[in-house]
Write a sequence for this structure.
């Protein structure tokens, strides 16, 4: 009997240790203590005196706990036994803008940070612990992120998912302490953002999607966008809209052909016309309305792949006139002129431009723009952006594009010379890639982002399958210091998270049992 008890205690302690560290992304430091705190219906939430900035966080935590264990906890003013206290520290905790401390003792839980962002991250750690069990091991967590930019990009031009799905995705991003939602709202298949000054952008441009050019118009009204931006803000996430230009402009050009710069046979009306003054006025209006809807600091203006469909520029009189006036002899020069001019517009709106890595060579000032490095086959593009002094966000196709397959057995999705982004590769990123850069260049790297392109993702089921659990690995790659990353340990923690995905009803890929669910095949 004694032996059985000893074994049971050992199993409990072991399970407990794994579970206590079940937080993803892995925190900087966890000190596990003896004993536990049991959350129950009598537990109360306390917002510390003076920390009014945490009122929204209290509501969020209360909702999470209700969702997780069905308990509607009272919010009270006085600290005491059996409480969860949220507090803002006045003295600098040395944890930066997003760090936090989480203490679980016999009397309850205390989350302390210097900012509401830190408290929000502490809440997500607590939420993950409670999702696993209401019996929380006593511990002391001290945590802060490796990178300030931890992002997810969703392409809703190719296929449109709608407010409900976006809100779900935002909540799951928050669960993993991701803080930037990059929203690819315009491209050839459909224009998805209401611009009041140009109604045809949505009455005409929002019609169709990647697999059905005649599908009814789907887009976000300005009221939808406000709701989504607010939902994200409360969770500590900034929404970064992308209005792609001068290429990928097909949907806009269907609505307002007078600003089209033409395209190719395969990609008709792919570009805006960079020779017409009226194009600049039109795009300035669009960016001005867009900037007003998104309170964040950043506006993404694409800048990728213009060469796919800009050959018509050579035949347009206004483009030719502009080139002649400026002494340009190549299409690249007029593309760079366009990029510089529109970056100036964005600066004038009080925002920082973000562009795909093609914009690096445009002559834009590094103080004016941030570069997203995506062409993993062009490491020289990353070198150049860093050498020029740009801040850079890393989202190379492999391993950061989640439209690439994640397992060798998968039939649908991209590969690049047989390479794809499996869970281990995502988790290991960006080690290897960034080691060669000196300290100054490494400090220019703002963070990491996944891009979920949706040419082959039409249904929610497939969106989930391609995103989970890679999102957990991406979050750990972006948050956890290199020295703390340990793939087998991540795998152990992930097993607890897969159970949570089951509870949420997520259709995820199971890396421990690759045939557990059928691969949903996209269009
Ligand atoms: C891209 O994938 N064209 C940024």
């Amino acid at each position: 009997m004694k032996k059985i008890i000893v074994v049971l205690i050992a199993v409990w302690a072991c399970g407990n240790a794994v579970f206590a560290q079940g937080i993803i992304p892995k925190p900087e430091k966890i000190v596990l203590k003896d004993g536990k705190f049991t959350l129950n219906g009598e537990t109360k939430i306390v917002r510390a005196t003076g920390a009014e900035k945490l009122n929204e966080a209290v509501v969020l935590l209360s909702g999470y706990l209700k969702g997780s264990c069905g308990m509607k906890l009272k919010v009270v003013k006085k600290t005491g036994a059996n409480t969860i206290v949220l507090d803002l520290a006045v003295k600098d905790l040395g944890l930066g803008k997003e760090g936090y401390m989480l203490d679980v003792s016999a009397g309850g839980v205390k989350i302390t940070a210097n900012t509401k962002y830190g408290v929000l991250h502490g809440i997500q750690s607590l939420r993950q612990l409670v999702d696993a069990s209401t019996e929380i091991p006593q511990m002391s967590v001290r945590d802060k992120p490796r990178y300030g930019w931890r992002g997810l990009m969703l392409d809703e031009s190719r296929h449109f998912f709608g407010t409900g799905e976006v809100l779900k995705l935002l909540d799951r991003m928050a669960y993993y302490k991701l803080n930037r939602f990059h929203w690819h709202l315009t491209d050839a298949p459909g224009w998805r953002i209401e611009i009041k000054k140009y109604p045809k952008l949505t009455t005409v441009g929002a019609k169709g999607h990647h697999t059905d050019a005649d599908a009814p118009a789907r887009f976000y009204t300005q009221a939808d966008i406000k709701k989504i931006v607010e939902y994200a803000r409360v969770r500590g996430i900034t929404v970064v809209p992308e209005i792609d230009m001068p290429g990928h402009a097909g949907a806009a050009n269907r609505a307002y052909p007078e600003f089209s710069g033409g395209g190719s046979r395969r990609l008709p009306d792919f570009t805006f016309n960079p020779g017409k003054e009226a194009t600049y006025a039109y795009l300035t209006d669009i960016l001005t309305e867009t900037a007003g809807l998104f309170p964040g600091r950043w506006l993404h203006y694409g800048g990728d792949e213009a060469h796919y469909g800009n050959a018509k520029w050579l035949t347009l009189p206004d483009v030719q006139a502009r080139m002649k006036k400026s002494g340009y002899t190549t299409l690249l020069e007029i593309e760079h002129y366009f990029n510089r001019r529109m970056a100036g517009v964005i600066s004038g709106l009080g925002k920082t431009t973000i562009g795909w890595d093609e914009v690096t060579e445009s002559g834009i000032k590094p103080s004016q723009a941030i570069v997203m490095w995506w062409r993993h086959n062009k490491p020289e593009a990353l070198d150049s952006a860093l050498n020029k002094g740009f801040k850079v966000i890393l989202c190379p196709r492999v391993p950061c594009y989640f439209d690439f397959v994640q397992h060798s057995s998968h039939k649908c999705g991209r590969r690049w010379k047989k390479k794809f982004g499996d869970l281990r590769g995502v988790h290991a990123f960006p080690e290897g890639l960034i080691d060669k850069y000196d300290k100054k260049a490494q400090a220019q790297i703002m963070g990491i982002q996944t891009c979920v392109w949706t040419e082959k993702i039409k249904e929610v089921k497939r969106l989930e399958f391609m995103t989970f659990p890679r999102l957990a690995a991406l979050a750990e790659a972006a948050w956890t210091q290199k020295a703390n990353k340990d793939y087998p340990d991540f795998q152990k923690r992930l097993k607890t998270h897969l159970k949570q995905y089951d509870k949420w009803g997520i259709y995820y890929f199971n890396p421990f049992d690759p045939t557990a669910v059928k691969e949903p095949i996209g269009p």
